[in-house]
From TrEMBL:
Keywords: Lipid metabolism. It comes from the Bacteria. This is Patatin-like phospholipase family protein. Pfam families: Patatin (PF01734). The lineage of its organism: Bacteria, Pseudomonadati, Myxococcota, Myxococcia, Myxococcales. Residues 35-241 form the PNPLA domain. InterPro entries: Acyl_Trfase/lysoPLipase, PNPLA_dom. One of its GO terms (biological process) is lipid metabolic process.
Length: 352
């Protein structure tokens, strides 16, 4: 058995993997979930996957992310995804804050991380990539959720949480999903009906604000206003689409999903609701690649990084721990490439 990876596939993906193995040409969609520092456990896997799996590709590859997932996908949509991922990783790990930083400071730091991620020409490369089609998920806030005052915003989030207990659909009262993308009329997500959704083109004017908004965690970062979009405050796309339990559109190709967990939680408010998990129909074509329990046990503290690390560790301790996580994550990438090269990936896949 694979020692560093958990490989889980829906029935359609499992059939395709048994027939052909994992080939870049068979992939239609790559999702990137919300989760803050959790993404670091995927850093080595991302670099291994995106260094060469899609070389020579000509048909569109749809990359969709919310929050930190949209930033990872913005790296993949650049000409040199590995270099972009390394810039992102270094800047992300090096962020530092005083105790209880104000949202304005966290937003300023996030903007600098985004500058490092995009480098000199990242925006142009994303907007004009020959085959990568980036989709950035944001949430346009209504009512108290759109207010910056923390007590009012907290009241709005509490109302969201209570109504979400009844149904995820009630979140549409408080927020609207807005997806900024480079796919034009080819987007496989244009038919989303689970929540109120709007689709807008990514442009030079809105690309940075959209990415900042997608990662603007309520109460932690300031909300963002996006030029050319509907007026209002945009926040973290993960509030609505935490792990992207979406209809991934028509087609028979794979949904290749590097993820930090072996399960998918639909929305931010579903994290504490064990009965609220992904709809199987959405993941029939999905191959989910997650760290194994054995790998997680080897991480500092025996856990995947999270935002609480900023509070319970000094900067030096956290940076050291996060670099250890990235080093361990490279085992995932090495193991996956070996399974692909030997044509043995289907032997290690379990049903999702």
């Amino acid at each position: 058995m694979a020692s560093n990876l958990s490989l889980l596939a829906g029935p359609d993906a499992l059939r395709l993997l048994r027939e052909r193995g994992l080939r870049g040409d068979d992939v239609d969609v790559v999702p990137g979930a919300s989760g803050g520092p959790k993404w670091l456990v995927l850093a080595g896997l991302d670099r291994a996957l995106f260094a060469g799996l899609f070389q020579g590709r000509t048909r569109p590859l749809h990359l969709i992310g919310s929050s930190i997932g949209s930033w990872r996908m913005a790296c993949v949509a650049q000409a040199d995804p590995v270099a972009a991922l390394r810039r992102f990783e270094a800047a992300y790990i090096d962020q530092r804050y005083p105790a209880k930083p104000p949202p304005s400071l966290v937003s300023e730091t996030s903007a600098r991380i985004l500058d490092a991620l995009l480098g000199e020409n990242g925006e142009e490369q994303i907007l004009h990539h020959p085959w990568a089609r980036l989709h950035v998920v944001t949430a346009l806030c209504r009512g108290p959720v759109g207010v910056e005052h923390p007590h009012v915003q907290m009241l709005g989030l509490a109302l969201c949480a209570v109504s979400n207990l009844v149904s995820r659909r009630t979140l549409g009262i408080h927020m609207q999903r807005v997806v900024f993308h480079t796919a034009g009329d080819t987007s496989p997500f244009s038919g989303l009906r689970d929540l109120p959704s709007v689709h807008l083109p990514l442009t030079k004017e809105n690309l940075r604000p959209a990415l900042l908004a997608s990662g603007s965690i309520p109460l932690v970062l300031s909300g963002v206003r996006i030029p050319g979009a509907r007026p209002g405050v945009y926040r973290d796309g993960g509030v609505l689409d935490y792990h992207l339990d979406l209809d991934f559109g028509p087609g028979e190709g794979l949904v290749l999903y590097p993820h930090f967990y072996p399960y998918v939680v639909p929305g931010w408010f579903d994290k504490s609701l064990p009965w609220r998990r992904a709809r199987p129909a959405n993941f029939r074509r999905a191959l989910l690649i997650a760290p194994s329990a054995e790998l997680v046990a080897r991480l500092p503290g025996g856990k995947i990084p999270d935002r609480v690390d900023f509070e319970r560790m000094s900067d030096s301790e956290r940076i050291r721990a996060w670099n250890q996580v990235v080093a361990e994550s490279e085992r995932m990438g090495d193991e996956l490439l070996e399974l692909i090269a030997k044509g043995r990936i289907a032997e290690h896949v379990r049903p999702l």
